[in-house]
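[stage:ingest] chain + small molecule (adenosine-2'-5'-diphosphate)
[stage:ingest] validated
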Amino acid sequence: MFEPDKSTYQLNDGNQMPVLGFGTYKIAKPDLMNQTIQSAYENGYRMFDTAQYYRNEKMLGDAIRNLSVPRQDVFIIDKVTEMNQGHDLTINSTDFSLQQLGTDYVDLLLVHWPIADKFFETWEAFEELKKQGKARSIGVSNFTRSQLELLKTQADEMPVVNQIETHPYLNQAPLIKFDKKQSIVTQAWSPLGRGAILDNPMIGKMAVHHGKTPAQIILRWDIQRGISVIPKSQNPERIAQNADLNFELSDDEMSMLDVMNRNQRTGNEPELVYELGKQYKQFKK
Ligand code: A2P
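[stage:predict] done
[stage:export] tokens:
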């Protein structure tokens, strides 16, 4: 049974996180933010994902306040951008983000991308922010297995979430398995591959069979493989559709979706972003 406003994952720090969230990347106008957040909330979404890089934290904070619901009814995810990594910048930029969002804490703060030369000091700042209560939970985004293993060599606390690009054409099965072993919940950004997978004929057939849409089939696959999803949509009908996931894919259907992998990314390659950080350090020397 999936209920968008009630279904949660247990995080390894004791907190709970909704299974379904709403992605706000590229929502850049206050009216649109208000409409989409209102529509998402009405359809049961309780988790809202932003980032310093999106430059829409204030809009999101205002839109959440316009819902007139208690702060604890919503789960806010924010991410510290590459340029703000390092110990002091992480602390200061998070304070600024909280001010923009108009809240004393975010529910989950993520390192947006791994950067080699800021790697450990950024995480140390995250651990401090958690102790101070400014981030209820801390996690990472776009981390590979080797970066998580590296983090483990010095971290006092491990991330509770790894938010990564994953969809049927980039199924990330080995990383999801590794995350699970480490008690890290995997969360999918661009679970619909930015719309590119929706015309896959096999997914289309499954959709017809269930009386659902291809997007619902993909999101349901994610939930059944035990990961969290944050689909984006600016359209009220599709916002509603993406939260209506209370049906079941058979084992055969799950397997068919599992083998569609093409290692096809829509975003950056995390190892490259990490290395660029290193080059930046060398360049400065
Ligand atoms: P729109 O905003 O017009 O609904 P992702 O979350 O993978 O990045 O995908 C986002 C893209 O997928 C957006 O272009 C969005 O367009 C589209 N999209 C979101 N939900 C659906 C849906 N249920 N059916 C079709 N397209 C969708």
